[in-house]
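The records we work with from here on pair a chain with its fold. A complete example follows; check for yourself that the lines match position by position.
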Amino acid sequence: MGKEKLLSFGKYPDLSLKQARDKRDEARKVLAEGKDPSFERKKEQAKKEAEHRETFGKLADSLLEKKRLEGKSASTLAKTEWLHALLCADLGGYPIGQITARDILVPLKKMEARGRNESALRMRSAAGQIFRYAIAQGLVDNDPTFGLKDALTRVPVRHRSALIDPSKVGGLIRAIEGFDGQPTTRIALQLLAMTALRPGELRMAEWSEIDLDRAIWTVPAHRAKMRRPHMVPLSDEALGKLSELQELTGWGKLLFPSIRSSKRSMSENTLNAALRRMGYSGEEMTAHGFRATFSTLANESGLWNADAIERALAHVEGNEIRKAYARGAHWDERVRIASWWAGYLQQLADGPEQHTTS
């Protein structure tokens, strides 16, 4: 015969007779399911202890490290760290298993009260990732952020401002050529216009990414938004700007170092601030808007394959087969597009002045 197993629920009178019977019935039910009530009880106690040890802040840090090991881009890691810091200011010290939807709503509503609705939505998403990470480790059973899906205000999406009228684009190119600020800022804006790179990809670029002989700029996977290398063909005009820039910053690692430290890249606001200084408001043009300018005018020209234009913008194809094909496709056409685009921008710049400021 097997050894008799006994289970203690507590002492009388701390535990009433009715409570003891209820717990006995629960144990019998667990036993009927082929489980050991004693083992299940110990497992539940261990889970509760783990929940107390594993705080929201610790899980947030662990998830961020996981993302680092997975090779997420520097910009993605920076945004994640920022969102985690905002959440942990209110939730960081609490055991993950004790946090409710109402608790999570506190930092979200603070952000919303500042008029940062989009940031509040991103915070909710970041919190959800932390809870799903905890679920995967058996620390909690559900994600309380799911119940907050309709608790936040969603504002209409505003696309980044961009000039798409050819004559006004010409005025912008002339304004950049006449920019009297830092030469590196002027060249950054000129290269941004010619290459249609994302501002972050350009700002943090290193000289090791530039192959002047082959006329190729390769954005490495860890800095590219889509986490895969992006090769950019360089026109003669772009090569000329890079040669000019090389005389200014070629001695260092970065193409566009900060004026305060050669180890840090140009700040995120430098390019937009330069546009404001030239008289372009945030409703007219942004650094990221050069991509929309290129996309619109290149497509409207009717000269180029739309897929080649999408590849030039490093947009990822949703279909896996087409995605694999697209990695090597359209290169020759993209080289021709780069040359045409640089020439077209100069042609527009040679036209009559169109931009006026109030």
